[in-house]
Structures are given as structure tokens and as C-alpha cells.
Amino acid sequence: MKRNKLVWSSFCVVMLTSLAVTGTLQAAEIESSIARGAKLYDKWYKVIDVDAPTESHSLYPPDKAYAEKPGSNWRCKECHGWDYRGRDGAYASGKHSTGIPGIDGTAGASAESIIATLKADTHGFGKLLSGPDFTDLANFVSKGQVDMDASIDRAYRDRGKGPLLRLPGSGPCRYRVPGRAASLTNLAGRLRIQSSCAAGV
After folding, report:
1. How far from 51 is each of 44, 45, 71, 74, 118, CA to CA, in Å?
2. DSSP string, 105-163
3. How far is CA 25 from the centre of its chain?
4. Which of 66, 101, 125, 149 makes the best surface tag, with the fewest CB within 10 Å?
5. Where in the chain does DSSP place strands (E)?
6. Strands 164-165, 175-176: parallel, antiparallel or unpaired by DSSP?
7. What Cα–Cα distance (Å) separates residue 29 from each residue in 132, 136, 160, 185?
């Protein structure tokens, strides 16, 4: 009887450990997919190592600043914004303004619906991206958007020197990304920050 209990207990421990490891691996795979999707959102053709399209995107307004620059107007972030808010965010005005809505309304949407939109003739990515590319981009759009206003202080953005960031627990201090403004979809992986407290900003 004791032996049966010991065998059963051992079996349960092995099964629970296996489930925990599987869950951890799945979570890591989703996080990896979202991170790659963010890079695709920023500059997909660089991620998949192909040349940028040579003709402008059909949805990019012909009277806007990057109408003659396919390498720019085929980037998701160029129309929908680095803050995901498109015409209602940082690109509401200025040279990046297009009047195109952001993707913030698609946060939480199904991957299938996002992929269908990307493959539709209007967006035109059907023959440009692979299955894993679509999955990663859809995972980012659905599950990877963050509230940029929680990290970036728009009122104190220092043009040309990078955005000022508020970090959790930093109190009144802000932090600057040195050099020109970094690509915000890649920011987490390459932050080298300087404290505004030390700089007296």
C-alpha cells in the first residue's frame, strides 16, 4: 500500500513538473514571437533580410512626406505610429502625419483577423511575409502593445537627443536614451540610459 502511494506521488510530481515546464516554454515562445513581431512592425524587410519594396504602398497618401520613399512608407510604424496611435498619437502632425488610424484598437483582437487584414489586397503583405512572420506580427499587434504614455513623457521629449523615459520607482528622475531617438520597438533590448537627475535636467 505504501509503495503504491509512493509511486502515485512520484507520478504526480513528475506530471506537475512537466506541465509547469511546458507552460513556461509556451510563455517564452509567445514572448519571443511578440518581440520579433515588434521588429517586423518597425522594419519588416530588414528582419526577413530582403530588399525594401521599390514601389510606394498603395494606402500611403500621395501628398505626404514619404510618398516617394517606399522604404519608409511600407513600414507599419510609418503609418500607424511608433506609439501605435497613428493619427491620434505622435504622428497627428508633422512630417510623419498621414491621417491613418493607429493599431491600438486592435489590441486583443484575434490573430486570425489581424493576419487576414495584413494579407488583404489593401495592405498587400500576402506574398511578402511567411506564415511565421504573420504569426509574430499578429501576436505583437494583439498582445504586445504597451501604453507608451506610461514610459514616455511626451511633454518632456527632447527632440534630437532621444525621448525622456520615466522608469518605475525613479521618482522625479527621468532618463535619456543617448544619441538620436531610438526605434521604440527595439528600445528594451538596447537601453543605455543617463539619469536626468545627474544631468540636472
Report:
1. 10, 6, 9, 11, 19
2. GGTT--HHHHHHHHHSTTT--TTTS-HHHHHHHHHIIIII---GGGTB-GGG-BTTTB-
3. 21
4. 149
5. 164-165, 175-176, 194-195
6. antiparallel
7. 12, 10, 35, 18
Q: Which three cell numbers stand for residue 41?
A: 512592425
Residue 184 CB-density burial (10 A; 0-12 exposed, 13-18 middle, 19+ buried): buried
Residue 42 is inside which H or E element, if any?
helix 2-47
Q: What is the pLDDT along the chain (201 residues), one digit of tens a residue?
A: 556 665 566 555 555 555 454 555 577 889 999 999 999 999 999 999 999 999 999 999 999 999 999 999 999 999 999 999 999 999 999 999 999 999 999 999 999 999 999 999 999 999 999 999 999 999 999 999 988 877 676 765 554 455 555 555 555 555 544 444 444 444 444 444 444 444 444
8 A C-beta contact, residue 64 and residue 97: yes
Using only C-alpha atoms, what is the Rg of the chain? 22
**Distance between terminal CA atoms of the chain?**
72
